[in-house]
Write a structure and sequence with these properties.
The complex is a heterodimer of chains A (about 120) and B (about 600). With about 120 residues, chain A is mainly α. Chain A has four helices and no strands. Chain B contains 19 helices and 21 strands. Classes of the chains: A mainly alpha (about 120), B alpha+beta (about 600).
């Protein structure tokens, strides 16, 4: 009895230690996960910020291109360009225009190729 | 332990307890009582309210061509506290060329420790981007620090002077000062957004701690009724006329009579809205709504329409024109040419002052006044252009004895050009006075129409029958028998009326040799698509030639002819192809 009691008293409390270790490991993992998730959140945030910057830059470029396009396609600019390249464009004289009379019921439809009518359906 | 030691020990305990109590009280004070203050202080150092700018809406013509837009620019900033000693010359050499600055002066500026030095404003986006890349690649790839580019923007008007009075311009803060920019400021401006952000110790945003915010709302786009193609035609013809006649001012308004839409509006002198500071005060005035002139003979349209509507006369009614001199109220009224009896149609065609006066006398002052007001004179038209004035039409109890003979020929009343073209538009469209429209629609950033401006009929002024009769008479004005033969447009029946009004002398009476000449017409006369007003103030011509029919009618013709082509209006008398008949080869 005494020997058994001594033996029991000296036995390593494996279950208790195991529980402690598990608790510590669990807490450690929770902590590490927390840090890892935080890091990933920060990294995601940085990526989001970068994307926002890129988007803003693209918007600015788009707007810049739109403004430039508007400037070089004004009638005055196009006329200057026409003069530069020397294209002698002249308006079509009224006597060179032939108008097809559509008639009251829009008969002009009839001269359209049949394929177009099929395609329109 | 002796009693003395116990006392000492007790004293130490009390002292320690007191110290802890004081510390605790202080902590309670800081954490509880002054919590809000220190919380705000801490938040202030790490949180920031970031403003997100909204884009100002664009202005477009009826076809969607850009008339006013935003151009992104950059402001180049140098941070002297970051620039390393010795790198200033390299930085200056890199920046000087693209920024158009002197390298030596730039290097001296960069040597200062100022953390915020504005080196250049209004740098194009492409230039800034190139500089950014060059700075990153400089110094053997290590880059040069201390230069950054702040976003900025400016309002641009790609067409320069074109339509400047309608568009207006914005001030340095980007707020509309004149024109549509001012009239629709609330629509164009949009609203800024914001968000609360937190920063780390390096000043970078901690995105995961982003707080509440509000997205910016970009300004709405404004789509005008103006057709840029027609505007270009009008501007080029007006510029040619302005160069030829050198008037003090000139203007053209083109309107669609059926709807009241303004298709073009041009003034001379004008200004460049890109550089409004360089414009003259006279050049900034939109005379279409701000000029108050005696209309002269164009006003006879109102008199004749009123007489016909009230059945006081028909087009065939003969009026005795007294051989060119009519004495009434102690004053003599004269015609330009002596006429005997003229039909009402000829009173308009020949522009007889005496004939118009006698028509008005048949009407009576109250009826004449009523029709003047019904045609929209003496009140604002409501067009969305800032500063419109109502003109001046005195009520009959303020008329003099001779007013009944002077008002019918466009004296003693003051009208704006927009009122005049709107009134003539009412005759052209069958008697409906339409509100002039300059804005077609307001469209949001997503492209959805948020507001449309459908045609608004103010009132019916005259019957369809009366309008048809007046149109017939006005067609005779634009014939060999009328005063505006030079306004004829090949292929189209044209109606119109000339006006030649002596200018008022500021000292009293009328100024000798100073005239405001005009022509207002419409085409095709039977189903008008266009109403056009051409007006010039003090045109420089040879003596005896300063008449609306000689100065403004040819300008009208040039504009009408080109605009009819632009709109593909089908001529009534179709010109035959060259040779008259199609050959077999041409048919195929």
């Amino acid at each position: 009895m005494a020997a058994n009691r001594r033996k029991n008293q000296n036995a390593v409390p494996v279950v208790a230690i195991g529980k402690c270790v598990l608790a510590v490991v669990f807490l450690g993992l929770v902590g590490l996960s927390h840090v890892s998730l935080k890091n990933r959140l920060h990294a995601g945030g940085r990526q989001l910020k970068e994307c926002e910057k890129e988007l803003a830059a693209v918007r600015v470029k788009n707007q810049s291109a739109r403004a430039r396009l508007a400037q070089i396609t004004t009638r005055a600019a196009l006329e200057r360009r026409l003069a530069e390249v020397g294209l002698a464009l002249v308006p079509i004289a009224p006597d060179r225009i032939v108008r097809l009379d559509a008639g009251a019921g829009g008969v002009i439809e009839a001269i359209r190729p049949a394929a177009n009518e099929e395609g329109g359906r | 332990m002796t009693g003395r030691m116990k006392v000492r020990f007790l004293m130490v305990c009390v002292a320690v307890a007191a110290a802890f109590t004081v510390c605790s009280m202080r902590l309670v004070q800081l954490q509880v009582f002054r919590h809000d203050y220190y919380w705000a202080l801490a938040a202030q150092t790490r949180t920031d309210k970031e403003t997100i700018a909204a884009q100002r809406g664009s202005i477009q013509d009826a076809g969607g061509e850009l008339l006013a837009a935003n151009e992104p620019l950059r402001t180049v900033i140098a941070d002297g506290s970051v620039i390393k000693d010795g790198t200033e010359p390299a930085l200056a050499a890199l920046l000087a060329g693209p920024l158009g600055m002197d390298a030596g002066q730039l290097a001296r500026r960069l040597a200062a420790d100022d953390p915020y030095m504005v080196l250049k404003k209004g740098v194009a986006e492409g230039v800034a981007e190139g500089l950014g890349q060059a700075l990153a690649a400089a110094n053997g790839g290590a880059g040069l620090r201390g230069i950054h580019f702040e976003p900025a923007a400016r309002r641009i008007y790609p067409n320069g002077h074109l339509l400047s009075h309608v568009l207006g311009f914005v001030n340095a803060e980007g707020r509309g000062v004149d024109g549509i920019e001012r009239a629709l400021e609330d629509q164009l401006r949009g609203s800024e957004g914001f968000r609360w952000i937190e920063r780390d110790r390096k000043g970078r945003e901690l995105v995961i701690y982003r707080g509440e915010g509000r997205a910016p709302r970009d300004g709405n786009d404004v789509r005008l009724t103006v057709d840029l193609g027609i505007q270009h035609i009008v501007e080029s013809e007006l510029a040619a006329a302005f160069a030829q006649f050198k008037p003090e001012s000139a203007l053209v308004v083109v309107m669609r009579p059926a709807t009241g839409e303004i298709l073009a509006l041009a003034n001379r002198p004008d200004f460049d809205p890109n550089e409004p500071g360089k414009g003259s005060a006279a050049g900034m005035i939109d005379r279409s709504v701000l000029l108050m002139v005696e209309p002269g003979s164009t006003f006879k349209i109102v008199t004749a329409a009123a007489a016909l509507e009230e059945r006081k006369a028909t087009l065939e009614t003969m009026i005795q024109c007294e051989g060119g001199s009519f004495s009434y109220g102690g004053k003599v009224l004269r015609d330009h040419h002596p006429y005997g009896e003229l039909s009402v149609e000829d009173v308009l065609a020949k522009s007889s002052n005496i004939g118009a006066a006698k028509l008005a006398m048949r009407l009576g002052d109250l009826k004449l006044y009523e029709y003047i007001r019904r045609f929209g004179f003496g009140e604002r038209t409501g067009v969305l252009l800032p500063g419109e004035i109502p003109g001046q039409v005195h009520p009959p109890h303020r008329w003099t004895k001779i007013s009944i003979t002077r008002i019918p020929m466009g004296h003693e009343v003051a009208v704006t050009p927009i009122q005049l073209v709107t009134a003539v538009g009412a005759v052209a469209n069958g008697g409906h006075l339409m509100m002039p429209q300059i804005v077609k629609a307001i469209v949001n950033a997503a492209g959805t129409v948020v507001q449309q401006f459908p045609p608004v009929e103010v009132r019916r002024v005259i019957s369809e029958e009366t309008a048809a009769h007046i149109r017939r008479a006005l067609q005779k004005v634009v014939s060999d028998k009328g005063t505006a033969a030079l306004a004829r447009v090949p292929g189209f029946p044209v109606g119109g009326k000339t006006g030649t009004a002596q200018k008022i002398d500021p000292k009293g009476g009328y100024a000798d040799g100073k005239y405001v000449v005009s022509f207002v017409g419409f085409l095709p006369a039977d189903r008008a698509e266009l109403a056009i007003l051409v007006m010039m103030d003090e045109a420089q011509t040879v003596a005896g030639m300063n008449y609306g029919g000689l100065v403004c009618a040819p300008v009208f013709r040039q504009i009408a002819e080109r605009v009819a082509r632009h709109l593909d209006l089908v001529p009534a008398a179709e010109p035959l192809p060259a040779g008259g008949v199609l050959t077999k080869a041409e048919e195929h």
